[in-house]
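Quick one, probably user error.
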């Protein structure tokens, strides 16, 4: 698949199979990114589904000012923030919050394969939401600082500073466990 933009144009022209291509290409990464915002995998999956439903029903205009993936992740971020705002008003826990997390293990095990990545992932969970989010976008999803700035609604300078501080915090956590990760 190219970059998603042509598939989205095909979808807007009436080719419903093009949306299936978009979902299969971007679903896992989008779910993991949203999880970095919420730290709740089941809700992250639901929000990712909501993003794809927005594409299907609302057919928002893609202006091509940024890459399709950046645009899609921005929609995901905004949808997650809307969810956070709504859920902060309601403090009830639903039975779904205690649902078996088998799906989380399946996607994570396929995404995080070797032991070093598992240790790194556990260390990432200890970071603040903003640090975890910037590291996930840049290093796991491969976004540039410019694209990350668009998604997170920050300046490129703020992203560079966040990356610097978050890598330092991550090194500190990994250092306590006697682990050094060469790419940091």
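Nope, works fine. Designed sequence:
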């Amino acid at each position: 698949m190219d970059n998603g933009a042509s598939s989205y144009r095909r979808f807007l022209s009436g080719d419903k199979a093009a949306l299936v291509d978009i979902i299969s290409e971007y679903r896992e990464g989008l779910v993991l990114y949203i999880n970095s915002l919420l730290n709740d995998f089941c809700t992250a999956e639901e929000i990712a589904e909501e993003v794809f439903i927005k594409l299907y029903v609302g057919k928002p205009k893609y202006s091509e000012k940024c890459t399709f993936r950046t645009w899609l992740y921005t929609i995901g971020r905004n949808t997650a923030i809307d969810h956070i705002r709504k859920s902060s008003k309601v403090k009830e826990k639903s039975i779904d919050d205690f649902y078996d997390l088998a799906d989380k293990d399946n996607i994570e095990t396929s995404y995080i394969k070797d032991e070093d990545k598992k240790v790194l992932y556990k260390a990432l969970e200890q970071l603040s939401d903003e640090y975890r989010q910037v590291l996930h976008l840049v290093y796991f999803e491969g976004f540039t600082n410019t694209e990350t700035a668009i998604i997170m609604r920050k300046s490129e300078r703020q992203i560079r500073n966040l990356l610097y501080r978050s890598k330092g915090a991550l090194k500190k956590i990994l250092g306590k466990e006697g682990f050094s990760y060469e790419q940091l």
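The chain has a mean pLDDT of 81.
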